[in-house]
C-alpha cells in the first residue's frame, strides 16, 4: 500500500496492466467507503489498480458549514482503504490541490446543481465538480466510483463526465445503511445518542413512503384484476368468499373514484413521519423533502411514470444529514426496492452486484444519475 501526498508522486505511481479505479472521499472512512473500494477492486481486478483519494475540499463548503470540524483520521483511513483492497491512497494538502490559491476558473454544475442540495448549499456542486475534475486529471482513472447516498452529486458528476468528455466510466454504488436504516455518513460521528435516534427518522420517512406506495400500487393492481374477472362475477364471488369480494369492491371503487396520485401519496407518507420528527427531543429540522426526476432533479407530478428519487435533507442539532431512496411509479411496475433489486448507475449501464457487508444494504434501489437529457439552447433541441 502506497501513501502519496503530492501530484508528482501520483504521476510517478506506475500503472498496472489492468484498469485503474478511483474512489474519491473526504476521509473519516466508514463501511460505505469500504463498499466503494471493494466494488472498485472487483471491477479493476487483480491486474488493476485502486486509488483512494482523501481530501476535505474547502471549495465545496459554504461559510458557516463544518469545514473546520470535519473529522480528519488519515491513519485509520489508510488502514481501512488497505483492508478493503486499495493499492494507494492519495491524501494531498490544500496547497497541493490549489497551488494558485482559490481557482479562478471553475466547473459549474448547471441548473441541476442549483436544485435541492444546490439550493441549500449555493456553490456546493461547483466546488465538488471543480475538485472532482482536478482529481480525475491527477489520478487519470478508467473507472470512478461514487455513492448513491449522494444522489445529486452522482448525477452532476455523471453529467459533467458526459458533457465534457471525461474519458472515465462513472459508477454508482448503492447506499450502505446501518441495520436500523440510518445511511452511513462521516457526519454521523457528530451525533449524540438522542440525536442519532432523531436522525433515524430520515430513513424511516423514506421507507414509509415506499411502503405506502407499495400498498397503493397493490390496491390498484387488485382493482385491475377484479375488473377483469367481473365478467364471471358469481364464480369469482364463490371462489373468493365474501370478505375478499368486499375488499375487491372497495379497491375497484377506490381506483375508479381517486385518480392516480401515487407520488402525492408517497410524499405525504414521508412528510407525516418528518412532521412527527419535528416534535422529538432533539427535533428534526427539515431542510427539504423532494420527489424528483433523476434526469434533472425537478419535482415530479402525479402523472409521472418511471423511477424517481425521494430525497430528504435535515438538521439534527448542528449536524446536517441527507438521504434518498429510488421509487418506481407506474401501472406495470411494483413500487420499488425489494421487487426491482439494487440498481446502479443508469448512465453507465453498469450493474453492481450487491455485495455482502456488515451493515445492512439499501432496501430499495436509491438514486442514480440518469442519462443526460438534451438541454434547450443554442445547440438546438436535437442535441
Ligand atoms: N452510506 C454510504 N453508502 C454508499 N456510499 C457512500 C455512503 N456514504 C458515503 N458514500 C460515498 O463515499 C464517497 C465519499 O463520500 P464522503 O467522504 O463525503 O463521505 P460521507 O459519509 O458522505 O460524508 P459526509 O457525512 O460528509 O456526507 C461519496 O461518493 C459518497 O457518496
Ligand atoms: C466527491 C467528493 C470527494 C469531492 O470532494 C466529496 O464531495 C465526497 O466525498 O462526496
Ligand atoms: N458527501 C458530500 C460531501 C459534502 O457534504 O460536502
Automatic annotation (TrEMBL):
It is an enzyme of class 6 (ligase). (R)-pantoate binds at residues 60, 153. ATP binds at residues 26-33, 147-150, 176, 184-187. Gene3D superfamilies: HUPs, Pantoate-beta-alanine ligase, C-terminal domain. It is found in: Cytoplasm. Residues 333-383 are annotated as: Disordered. Pathway: Cofactor biosynthesis; (R)-pantothenate biosynthesis; (R)-pantothenate from (R)-pantoate and beta-alanine: step 1/1. It holds the Pfam family Pantoate_ligase. Transmembrane segments: none annotated. Its main location: cytoplasm. Its EC number is 6.3.2.1. The keyword ATP-binding applies. The keyword Nucleotide-binding applies. It catalyses: (R)-pantoate + beta-alanine + ATP = (R)-pantothenate + AMP + diphosphate + H(+). The active site is at residue 33. Homodimer. Belongs to the pantothenate synthetase family. The reaction proceeds by a bi uni uni bi ping pong mechanism. This is Pantothenate synthetase.
Amino acid at each position: 500500500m502506497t501513501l502519496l501526498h503530492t501530484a508528482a508522486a501520483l504521476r510517478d505511481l506506475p500503472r498496472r496492466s489492468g484498469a485503474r479505479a478511483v474512489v474519491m472521499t473526504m476521509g473519516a472512512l466508514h463501511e460505505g467507503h469500504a463498499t466503494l473500494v471493494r466494488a472498485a477492486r472487483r471491477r479493476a481486478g487483480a491486474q488493476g489498480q485502486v486509488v483512494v483519494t482523501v481530501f476535505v475540499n474547502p471549495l465545496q463548503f459554504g461559510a458557516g458549514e463544518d469545514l473546520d470540524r470535519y473529522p480528519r483520521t488519515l491513519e485509520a483511513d489508510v488502514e481501512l482503504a488497505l483492508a478493503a483492497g486499495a493499492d494507494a491512497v492519495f491524501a494531498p494538502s490544500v496547497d497541493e490541490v490549489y497551488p494558485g490559491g482559490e481557482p479562478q476558473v471553475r466547473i459549474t454544475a448547471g441548473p441541476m446543481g442549483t436544485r435541492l442540495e444546490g439550493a441549500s448549499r449555493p456553490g456546493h456542486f461547483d466546488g465538488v465538480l471543480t475538485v472532482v475534475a482536478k482529481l480525475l486529471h491527477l489520478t487519470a482513472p478508467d473507472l470512478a466510483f461514487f455513492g448513491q447516498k449522494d444522489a445529486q452529486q452522482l448525477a452532476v458528476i455523471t453529467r459533467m463526465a458526459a458533457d465534457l468528455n471525461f474519458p472515465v466510466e462513472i459508477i454508482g454504488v448503492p447506499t450502505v445503511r446501518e441495520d436500523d436504516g440510518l445511511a452511513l455518513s462521516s457526519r454521523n460521528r457528530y451525533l449524540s445518542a438522542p440525536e442519532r435516534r432523531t436522525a433515524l427518522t430520515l430513513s424511516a420517512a423514506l421507507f414509509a413512503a415506499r411502503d405506502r406506495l407499495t400498498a397503493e400500487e397493490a390496491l390498484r393492481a387488485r382493482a385491475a384484476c377484479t375488473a377483469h374477472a367481473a365478467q364471471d362475477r358469481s364464480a369469482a364471488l364463490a371462489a373468493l368468499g365474501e370478505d375478499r369480494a368486499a375488499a375487491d369492491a372497495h379497491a375497484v371503487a377506490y381506483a375508479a373514484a381517486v385518480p392516480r396520485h401515487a407520488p402525492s401519496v408517497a410524499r405525504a407518507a414521508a412528510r407525516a413521519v418528518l412532521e412527527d420528527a419535528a416534535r422529538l427531543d432533539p427535533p428534526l429540522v427539515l431542510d427539504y423533502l423532494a420527489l424528483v426526476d433523476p434526469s434533472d432533479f425537478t419535482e415530479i407530478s402525479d402523472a409521472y411514470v418511471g423511477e424517481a428519487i425521494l430525497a430528504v435533507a435535515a438538521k439534527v442539532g448542528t449536524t446536517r444529514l441527507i438521504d434518498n431512496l429510488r421509487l418506481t411509479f407506474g401501472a406495470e411496475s411494483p413500487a420499488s426496492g425489494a421487487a426491482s433489486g439494487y440498481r446502479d448507475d443508469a448512465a453507465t449501464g453498469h450493474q453492481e452486484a450487491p455485495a455482502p457487508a456488515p451493515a445492512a444494504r439499501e432496501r430499495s434501489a436509491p438514486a442514480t444519475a440518469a442519462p443526460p437529457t438534451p438541454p434547450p439552447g443554442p445547440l438546438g433541441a436535437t442535441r
